[in-house]
Automatic annotation (TrEMBL):
Domain of life: Bacteria
Bilayer-crossing regions: 37-56
Cited InterPro entries: Spore_III_AF
Keywords, in A-Z order: Membrane, Transmembrane, Transmembrane helix
Disordered: annotated span: 155-195
Protein name: Stage III sporulation protein AF
A Pfam family of this chain: Spore_III_AF
Length: 195
């Protein structure tokens, strides 16, 4: 009993020296109150540990802590694994969609187009936007074949893709008129032109 009491007093002294050293090496004093709170909680645990040891409850306390910590850690790891899996599936989906769009373009006789994908916001309704950048102007038949192929083969509606034509500009998403009424003065800003 005497050795346990001596060991307990040594632990308290060591803890006090260590706590003081930690407080003195803090680079920013803003965190001092949080460190003091944490050290105070550890000190309380250190002070009452002989009481638990005397009643034989220290192992139960430690076992309970390990059990709950283990459960929390497993839940965190499960959530992290699900997030990684979801990100992997999204990336695989985007890559497969780009491949299918390239196949549709090849079927229409377009081999020099750049195809890319990006996620659109908002966060809860994220969808994939396919961007197609053409190097040359397409015939009307090619445009219709591409639009039909994107809808039929890829399941893409007109608001899910964007075709950039070197002659006509953007088509699909982003091809919305600017604010204002073009008939109110010839400009899209709504400001009448000076004659």
């Amino acid at each position: 009993m005497r050795m346990e009491l001596y060991q307990w007093m040594k632990n308290l002294a060591f803890f006090h020296v260590l706590g003081t050293a930690i407080l003195h090496i803090l680079p920013d004093k803003r965190y001092e109150q949080y460190i003091r709170l944490f050290l105070g909680l550890l000190l309380v645990l250190l002070i009452i540990s002989p009481v638990f040891a005397f009643f034989g409850k220290s192992s139960e306390l430690l076992d309970g802590f390990q059990k709950y910590y283990g459960e929390e850690e497993q839940e965190r790891m499960k959530n992290e694994a699900e997030g990684i899996q979801e990100a992997f599936l999204k990336e695989a989906y985007k890559n497969e969609l780009v491949k299918q769009v390239r196949d549709v373009l090849n079927d229409a006789g377009i081999t020099d187009a750049e195809v890319s994908s990006e996620e659109t916001a908002p966060e809860k309704t994220k969808t994939v936007l396919i961007k197609i950048k053409l190097q040359r102007d397409l015939t009307k038949e090619q445009k219709e074949a591409v639009k039909d192929g994107l809808k039929r083969s890829c399941g893409l509606e007109e608001d899910q893709y964007q075709i950039e034509d070197p002659v006509n500009g953007l088509e699909g998403v982003g091809n919305r008129p600017a604010a204002g009424n073009p008939s109110s003065g010839g400009g899209t800003s709504g400001i009448k032109k000076e004659q």
